Amino acid sequence: MYKKKGLLIVLSGPSGVGKGTVRKALFEEPNTNYEYSISMTTRSPREGEQDGIDYFFKSKEEFESLIDAGRLLEHAEYVGNYYGTPMQYVEEMIEAGRDVFLEIEVEGAKQVREKMPEGLFIFLAPPSLSELENRLIGRGTEDADVIATRVARAREELEMMHLYDYVVENDDVQNACDRIHAIVTAEHCKRERVEELYKQMLRGE
Ligand SMILES: Nc1ncnc2c1ncn2[C@@H]1O[C@H](COP(=O)(O)OP(=O)(O)OP(=O)(O)O)[C@@H](O)[C@H]1O
Ligand SMILES: Nc1nc2c(ncn2[C@@H]2O[C@H](COP(=O)(O)O)[C@@H](O)[C@H]2O)c(=O)[nH]1
């Protein structure tokens, strides 16, 4: 029996912009069809982070063997660590009709665009670079030198914004959630309408 596939939603944007915060708030909304793809990383867990919930924490050797085995949809090196998306979970959820969110940086998003161009690519942008830096400082999870490296990387990432289907400013968590939810809903409507019109044309109607 034909089952409608889910949407792959790539939520990208610089470290500290609020991707995790906005995604968690989105997932608390009722009547959504969202799944979250837990990434793999070689970064050490932060205080309170749990393996299998925040990330799958891997050694460098484990991560490299997953790359070699072709088990990652995408992967990137970010400020001295590997990050990547396990392929199988994403494929299974999309087949099951679920909308799957990836929360990834821009190099990984480029790879996903090549492999799955039918995805929906959303860039979460900060109100300003100084606000981004304040958020990273306020989060209190990185040392000053790592924050400086992440902010420098953010400047490069912001130059890639135009490659995305949508740019959403995270000025306020609820506003950003509402915008993303509206984009996903509109995208579904568009795709369903296009599919229906193509089917009508094929039937000669
Ligand atoms: N709209 C907002 N206004 C003010 N603070 C925010 C907003 N969104 C998120 N924050 C705060 O900014 C900090 C960074 O947020 P978060 O960890 O969600 O970012 P991230 O993009 O997921 O970072 P990373 O990519 O490093 O995982 C957190 O302390 C969070 O509470
Ligand atoms: N390319 C990928 N990037 C990812 C993935 N999971 C997370 N990330 C991004 O890495 C940076 C740093 O994350 P942090 O948890 O150390 O702050 C941030 O931009 C994340 O969005 C992934 O699977 N692939």
UniProtKB/TrEMBL annotation:
Keyword line: ATP-binding, Cytoplasm, Kinase, Nucleotide-binding, Transferase
EC number assigned by the record: 2.7.4.8
Positions of ATP binding: G13, P14, S15, G16, V17, G18, K19, G20
SMART domains referenced in this protein's UniProt entry, alphabetically: GuKc
Statement: the UniProt record of this protein carries the keyword Protein transport: no
Pfam family, one: Guanylate_kin
Residue span(s) of domain Guanylate kinase-like: 6-185
Superkingdom per UniProt: Bacteria
Record InterPro entries: GK/Ca_channel_bsu, Guanylate_kin-like_dom, Guanylate_kinase, Guanylate_kinase_CS, P-loop_NTPase
GO CC annotation terms, alphabetical: cytosol
Gene Ontology MF, one: ATP binding
Subcellular location: Cytoplasm
Keyword 4Fe-4S attached: no
Major localisation: cytoplasm
Gene3D superfamilies given in the database record: Guanylate Kinase phosphate binding domain, P-loop containing nucleotide triphosphate hydrolases
Reaction(s) catalysed (UniProt annotation): GMP + ATP = GDP + ADP
Stored NCBIfam families: guanyl_kin (TIGR03263)
Function description: Essential for recycling GMP and indirectly, cGMP.
Family: Belongs to the guanylate kinase family.
Protein name: Guanylate kinase
Organism: Savagea serpentis
